[in-house]
Amino acid sequence: MNPLHGTAADWVGLTILLPFLGFLVNGALAFVRPDDKRTVSLVGVGSVAVAFLVGVAVFFAVLGKHPEEAYVRSYWTWMTAGDLEIHAALQVDRLSVLMLLVVTGVGSLIHLFSVGYMHDDPGYARYFAYLNLFIAFMLVLVLGANFPVLFVGWEGVGLCSYLLIGFWFTDRQKAAAGLKAFLVNRIGDAGFLVAMFLIYRNLGTLDFVTVLRNAPLQLAPGGPVVTAIALFLFLGCAGKSAQIPLYTWLPDAMAGPTPVSALIHAATMVTAGVFLVARAGVLFAMAPVASAVVGGVGALTALFAASIGLKQWDIKKVLAYSTVSQLGYMFVGVGAGAYAAGIFHLVTHAFFKALLFLGSGSIIHAMHHAYHHTHNPADAQDMRNMGGLRAYLPTTFRTMGVATLAIAGIPPLAGFFSKDEILASAFGRGADDPFWYLVWALGAAAALLTAFYMTRLMLYTFYGPNRTGAAEQPHLAESPKVMTVPLVVLAVLTVLGGAINLPHVGTLHRWLEPVTAPAVAYTLGTPVSLGVELGLMALAIAIAVVGIRLAMTRLHPEQLVPAEQAPAERGFAKLLLEKYRVDELYDAVIVRPLVFFSRVVLWKGVDAGAIDGAGVNGSAFVARALGWVGSRLQTGQVSAYVLCFVLGALAVLGALTR
Amino acid sequence: MRMVVFWSVSFIAIAAALMVITRKSAVASALWLVVTLYQLAVLYVLLDAHFIAALQVLVYAGAIMVLFLFVIMLLNLGRPDPSDIAGAGRRVIAGVAGLVLLGELFTFRLAVPPGDLVLPAGAVSGMIEAQGAVTAVAKPLFQAYVVPFEITSVMLLAAIVGAVVLAKRRL
Amino acid sequence: MLGPSLAVSAILFSLGVVGVLLRRNAIVIFMCIELMLNAVNLTFVALSQQLGLDGQVFVFFVMTVAAAEAAVGLAIIIALYRHRDTVNLQDLNLLRG
C-alpha cells in the first residue's frame, strides 16, 4: 500500500475538478450574464487558486511520506479491449506534483493578471471559461497515469490553445493563427499516436508505471523498437513544444491575448513536450540515437530561434522566439540524460518567461490605453513606437529587468543555474560522444544571442527617448495593482528560484530521483570534474556579460523612429525579420501541393468524376438501362409471354434430362 | 395385326394434328382435332382402356369439340384468316422449340418403370376380362379416390356457374 | 407397346406446343392446348398397362377438368369478343407496360 494512501493525495482529483467547474460556471455566465465581471473573476481566479492550495497540500503529503513509488488513483475503467485495460487514473509522484504546483501557481497569478488586462473586453466571461478549461486539461496532462489520459490532456490543451489564440475571432488573421496552431500540433499528435501504438504492441500496456518498469526488461536497449517509439514521441513533442520543424505556430500564436501567451505559450502547454520526455525518460535513455536527435534538434532550434529574435520589432514576437529557443535548451537537457536539469529549466523558465510576457502585457495595456485616447491606429506592440517607458511604468520596468537578467544567465538568478546545468551535462556527454560537444557549442552561441536580444528588448522599450507621440504621452501610466502584484510575485520567484537546485546541493535532483533514476541508469557520460564545471560556469557568465555589453554599446535606441516612418530592412537583417521565410517555404513545398492534390485530383477527379460520375450516376444509368431492357419485354402480347413460358419449360426439362 | 392397327392409327393421328396447327380456318382446325381424338380413342382400346376410349368419344369428341364448334360459329370465325398464323420469324422459333422439346421428350421414351411397381404382364387385361372395363375403373374411383371425385363435382358446379356468368350479355 | 405409345404421345405434345406458339386465334390456341392434354392422357393410359388402373382413373379426372376448363375458357373468349370485337391475340395487348 502506497504511503500516500489516506493523505491529501487522495484529493488530487479536486485540482482538475475545480477549474473544470469554473469552466462550466463561466461558460454559462458567458451566455446568460456576460456583464457580471465580479462573479466571473471570483470563480475564474478562485477555482485555480483553490486548486493551487490543494496542490500544496498534496506536495506536503509527498514531502512528509517520502514515497518511492508513484501513487496511482484510478477513478473508473475507461476502456477495455481484449487484454488492454485503460483506466481514467491520476498519478501522484515527485514529478507530477512539481508540475501541479507550477501549473496552478503560475496559473493563478496569470488569472489574477487577466482580471486587469481583460477588464474592458466584452468576451470577459468566455475568456475565463476557456482559461479555466485549459488549466483543467493541463492538469489532466501532468497528472495522468497512463498515455491515453495524458493524450486526453494533450489534445485538450491543444483545443484550448486554439480557442484562446483565436479569441478575437472576428479578425480573420487571428482566427487563422488559431487554426494554424491546431493543425501543426495535429502533425505532432499523429506521431504521438503512432508511438502509443508501438508501445502497446511491444509492451502490452499503456500505464506509465508498468511501461517504465518493463521496458528495460522487454525491449532491446538501442534497438529499433525503442528508437522508433522515442522518435515518434519526440515528433509529438516537437509539435506541442514548437521545435524544428513544427515551431511555426508559436510566433503566430501571439495573436491571442497576452496573458494567454504567458500561460500557454510560455509556462505550461509548450512545456508539455519536455514533461513527456522526462516522464518517458527510460524509453529515451534506452535509445541513444533518439536522445541525440532530441538534443541536436533542441540545440539547433535554440540557436535558430534566437537568431530570428535578433531582428523582430514586435515585442511579443521577440518573446515568442525566445520561448522557442529556451524550449530548445530544455530538450538539450532531457536529451543529454539530465532530466532533472531539463525540468529545472522548465520551472525557472516558467517563472521568468511568464514574468516577461505579463510585463509586455502591462506595456501593451498602457500603450493601448494611450492610443485609445487619441484614436491613433498605430501598432501598440511595435518596439519602435515605445522607448523611455521606464519613467512611465517603473514597476514593470524593474520586474522585467530582473527577468531579463535571469534569462541572460546572470547569477544568482534562477536562469543561470538551470541553463548552466544543462550545458554542463551536454559537455559531459561529449566525452563519450563528440556530437554533444557540437550541441554544447550551439547552446553556448544561443546563450550569447539570448543575452543580446533580451537586452535589445529592454533598451528599445524602456530606455532612450519616447517615440509614442506627444499627444499620447500624458496617458501612459503604470498598470493597476491587480496586474503589477503578479509581476512582483513572479520577480521574487525568479530571484529565489535558483535555490531549488543549486549545484552540489541539488535539492530538485534528489527530489526527482525516484522518477529519473531508472532512466539515468542507462545514460552514458562521465560527470564533469569540478575544475571543468567551474570553468564552464565562468564561461557562461562571460558569455552573458559579453552579450549584454555588446547590445548596450552597439545598439542606439535614440536612433530609432516610430514604426510607420521606419525604413525597410535590407539584406541579412531582412531575412531575419522575415524569419528565414520558413512559413513561405512550408507554404510552397507542403501546403500548395496538398491543396492542389486535394482540389484537382481528389475532389474534381476522384470525387466528382469517378465516384459521382461513374459510381453514383453510372450505376443509376445502368439500372435505368436494365429497366429499359426489361420494359421491352412487357409487350402485352400473350403470344410473347407464351413463348417465354415455353422457353423456360424447355430449359427446366433440359436440366432434368441431363 | 394389333401393331398394324397401332401404326396406322398413330400415323393418322399425327397427320391430323399437323393439320390442326396449320389450317387457316378455325373450323377446319376444329374438325381435324376431332379426327385426332378419334384416333386416340382407338389407341386407348388397343391399350386395354376400353372405358376411357368410350369416354374419349363421348366427352371429348362429342361434347367438348361440339362446344368449340358452337363458339366458333357463334363468333363467326369460320372463314379462313391468313393473319391467324404467325409470321416467318415466329414460325422458325416455334419450329426450333418444337424440335428441342421433341428431343428432350424422346429421352423419356426409353424410361423403364421401377421393377417393384410393375404388375405381371397381362394383369390389367386380366382384370378387365374378369370384372369388365367399367367396374375395373369404377372400383378404385369410388374406393381410393372418392374424395377427389366429390371435389371434382364441386369444381364442375363452379365451372357451370362461372361459364354462365361470364357469357351473359347483362349481369 | 409402351415405347411407341410414349413416342406418339411425345410427338403429339410437341405439335401442340408448336401450335400454341404459332397461332394467333385464341380459340385455335385453346384447341392446341386440348391436343397437349390428350397427348398426356395417352401417356397415362400407356403406362397404366404396366403400373395398374390408377392411370386410367387419372385420365378420367383429366377429362373432367378439361371439360370444365373448356367451358369456362370459351365463356371468357365470348365475353372478350363482346368487348373487343376480336379474338386475335395481337390485338389484345392491354397488358402492355
Q: What descriptive keywords fit this protein?
A:
heterotrimer; A: 658 residues; mainly alpha; two-stranded antiparallel ribbon; 25 helices; 2 strands; 71% helix; 3% strand; B: 171 residues; 7 helices; 77% helix; globular
Write the layout of secondary structure elements.
The complex is a heterotrimer of chains A (658), B (171) and C (97).
Chain A: H1 13-32, H2 37-65, E1 71-81, E2 84-92, H3 94-117, H4 124-143, H5 147-165, H6 172-203, H7 208-218, H8 224-240, H9 249-252, H10 258-267, H11 272-279, H12 281-285, H13 288-309, H14 315-335, H15 339-374, H16 394-408, H17 414-430, H18 435-462, H19 481-496, H20 507-511, H21 513-520, H22 530-554, H23 571-577, H24 582-632, H25 638-657
Antiparallel strand pairs in A: 1-2
Helix pairs in contact in A: 1-2, 1-4, 2-3, 2-4, 3-4, 3-10, 3-15, 3-19, 4-5, 5-6, 6-8, 8-11, 8-13, 10-15, 11-15, 13-14, 13-18, 14-15, 14-17, 14-18, 15-16, 15-17, 15-19, 16-18, 16-19, 17-18, 17-22, 18-22
Chain B: H1 2-22, H2 26-46, H3 50-74, H4 88-109, H5 123-131, H6 133-143, H7 146-167
Helix pairs in contact in B: 1-2, 2-3, 5-6
Chain C: H1 2-22, H2 26-51, H3 54-84
Helix pairs in contact in C: 1-2, 2-3
Describe this structure in words.
The complex is a heterotrimer of chains A (658), B (171) and C (97). Chain A has 658 residues and is mainly alpha-helical. Helix content of chain A is 71%, strand content 3%. In chain A, strands 1-2 form a two-stranded antiparallel sheet. Chain A is globular and about 110 Å long. With 171 residues, chain B is mainly α. Helix content of chain B is 77%, strand content 0%. Chain B is built from seven helices and no strands. Chain B is globular, with a radius of gyration of 20 Å. With 97 residues, chain C is an all-alpha fold. Chain C has three helices and no strands. In chain C, helix 2 runs antiparallel to helix 3 (54-84). Chains in contact: A-B, A-C, B-C. At the B-C interface, helix 1, helix 2, helix 3, helix 4 and helix 6 of B face helix 1, helix 2 and helix 3 of C.
